[in-house]
């Protein structure tokens, strides 16, 4: 069980991805209609998603910023409509303090911030809201992060970044029990960096905090398999299985039912053998 403040989730858990952006990385434009988004959220909850992650700003490589009002307009009505029909927990994928506040007021119970609360005012908003927060590693900004990313030791540098963000959050008054860490696959990293992180995931479990991993449909999987975005489900499942065997607690995924099934197998074997 993952206990994050008042949010309790059975691990390994699947976080279903609901993008409400017209330009998101892999399902751009499909769920920006509130009815379709609501149906998709209900299906993901039914399929066993432990939490649904709603994002109104695309963070794919090259993506442009979205205004606060635009993000609020995309995210808040969908959170409200999901809240009205199911009690599945909701996280909000945002870096903007006002979006965090409005999303939590509308019923979101977790913040997922790819900037790890580094945007102005974001840390203060998280401290005030007292909800679980995922701190993700990203080098640079989405628009330029894939322009020649370099690390001397990607595993050590990502771990030390996550540790320093936990320290900054705790110093600002956020309870350490609310923090989840994420190595940020694909965020300012080359193909080899991503594979090296996946191979050494255990070292990224800093301060024994739970770890979220987002590998679903990402381009590293496309490079390995030569598949287009919509053809990457099997590769995504394989990466999710590897991540859980390597200690991930939560997997952010587009294909919820398939990922839930795969993780049931991993979990059964882990519980039996405690050897994986
Ligand atoms: C991630 C995310 C991830 C967390 C995105 C995509 C790109 N949040 N938001 N971790 N990726 N915590 O879904 O491919 O890996 S957006």
What does this 3D model show about the protein?
The protein has 276 residues and is α/β, with parallel strands linked by helices. It has one domain (9-266): Alpha-Beta Barrel (TIM Barrel). The protein is 42% helix and 15% strand. It has helices at residues 34-46, 68-85, 97-106, 122-129, 154-172, 191-199, 219-225, 233-245, 256-273, and strands spanning 2-4, 7-9, 13-19, 51-55, 90-93, 110-113, 133-136, 179-182, 212-214, 250-253. The chain has an 8-stranded parallel beta sheet with strand order 8-7-6-5-4-3-10-9. It has a two-stranded antiparallel sheet with strand order 1-2. The two termini are 18 Å apart. It binds ligand 7PJ. Ligand 7PJ binds at residues 17, 25, 59-60, 93, 112, 114, 134, 136, 182, 184-185, 212, 214, 218, 252.
List the helices and strands in order: EEEHEHEHEHEHEHEHHEH
The fraction of residues assigned to DSSP E strands is 5-15%
Which small compounds were modeled alongside the protein?
Answer: ligand 7PJ
| Alpha-carbon Rg, integer | 17 Å
Straight-line distance between termini:
18 Å
Question: CATH class, please?
Answer: Alpha Beta
Named at the architecture level, the CATH assignment is: Alpha-Beta Barrel
Structural class: alpha/beta
Question: Level of helix content?
Answer: 40-55%
Q: What is the H level of CATH, i.e. the homologous superfamily?
A: Dihydropteroate synthase-like
* Tally of discrete structural domains: 1
- What's the total helix number? 9
Low-confidence stretches: none
The CATH topology is TIM Barrel
- What profile does the largest beta sheet have? 8 strands, parallel
- How many β-strands, per DSSP? 10
């Amino acid at each position: 069980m993952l206990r994050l403040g008042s949010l309790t989730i059975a691990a390994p858990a699947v976080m279903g991805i609901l993008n409400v952006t017209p330009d998101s990385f892999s399902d751009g434009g499909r769920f920006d209609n509130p009815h379709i988004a609501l149906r998709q959220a209900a299906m993901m909850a039914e399929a066993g998603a432990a939490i649904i992650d709603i994002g109104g700003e695309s963070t794919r490589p090259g993506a442009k910023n979205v205004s606060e009002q635009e993000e609020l307009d995309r995210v808040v009505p969908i959170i409200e409509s999901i809240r009205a029909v199911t009690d599945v927990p909701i996280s909000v994928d945002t870096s903007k303090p006002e979006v965090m506040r409005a999303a939590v007021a509308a019923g979101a119970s977790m913040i997922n911030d790819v900037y790890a609360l580094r945007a102005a005012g974001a840390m203060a908003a998280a401290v005030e809201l007292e909800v679980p927060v995922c701190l993700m590693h990203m080098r640079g900004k989405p628009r330029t992060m894939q322009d020649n990313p370099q690390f001397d030791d990607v595993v050590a540098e990502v771990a030390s970044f996550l540790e320093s963000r936990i320290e900054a959050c705790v110093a600002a008054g956020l309870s350490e029990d609310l923090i989840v860490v994420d190595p940020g696959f694909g965020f300012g990293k080359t193909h080899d960096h991503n594979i090296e992180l996946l191979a050494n995931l255990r070292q990224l479990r800093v301060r024994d905090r739970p770890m979220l991993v987002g590998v679903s449909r990402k381009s590293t999987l496309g490079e390995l398999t030569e598949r287009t975005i919509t053809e990457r489900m099997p590769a995504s499942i394989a990466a999710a299985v590897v991540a859980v065997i390597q200690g991930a607690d939560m997997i952010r995924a587009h294909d919820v039912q398939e990922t839930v099934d795969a993780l049931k197998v991993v979990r059964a074997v882990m519980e039996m053998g405690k050897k994986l």
